[in-house]
Every structure is written in C-alpha cells, then in structure tokens.
Amino acid sequence: MFLWSHRIAVSLFGIGLLGLLIRRNALVVLMCIELMLNAVNLLLIEVSIQRNVAEGMILFVFVITLAAAEAAVGLGIVLNLYRTRGSLDIDLFRKLRG
Questions:
Q1: How far is the C-alpha of 44 from the C-alpha of 74, rounded, in Å?
Q2: What CA–CA distance (Å, rounded) separates 45 from 12?
Q3: Mean pLDDT, the chain, integer
Q4: Is residue 39 within 8 Å of 16, Cβ to Cβ?
Q5: Could you give the CA distance from residue 90 to residue 73 in angstroms, rounded to a whole number?
Q6: Residue ranges covered by each domain of the chain
Q7: Are the beta carbons of 13 and 39 closer than 8 angstroms?
Q8: Of 68, 90, 60, 94, nearest to 78 (Cα)?
Q9: Which architecture, in CATH terms, is 4-93?
Q10: pLDDT tens for residues 20-61?
C-alpha cells in the first residue's frame, strides 16, 4: 500500500531521473542527483518509521554523508570545468579524457 510520502518520494525520484537524462548543464545534473538521493532518504525514513526499525535511520545518515561528499567533489569538478572551458555543458566532459 502506497502512502502519500511514498508517492512523493517516487515523484521526486522520477523528476530527478528525468532531469538527469534530459538536461545538459552540469550544475543542474548535480542538483538532480541530489534530488534523487533526497527522495531515497524520504523513503528510507518512512519505511523505518512504519516498521519501527533503526536500520533506515542509520542508512539515512550514510546517504546524507554520500550526498555531501558527492556535492563537494562534483562541485569541484564543475568549477574546474567552467574555469578551463568557460561552459558547464556536459559534452565538454568527454574532452577531458586523456
């Protein structure tokens, strides 16, 4: 049975996935990945509360830590790309290969 928070989480994940597949701006792609991670976090918390277990809360902390690390590393890469190429287009990442 889907509750309202499950529907919100699935909708947020879908919006993030759609933005990830469609958008070409690297900063928007990072924001879509963050949106997908937050949708997963919402679902983890809801299931954890519903089943009265602590594993979902513990996993929530790990996902938040992963999101923070992803944001820091991703933003560093995006800033370096903008500094060297002058644009945030995803296709410019292909030119960074050896």
A1: 24
A2: 15
A3: 87
A4: yes
A5: 16
A6: 4-93
A7: yes
A8: 90
A9: Orthogonal Bundle (1.10)
A10: 999 888 889 999 999 999 999 998 888 888 888 888 888 899
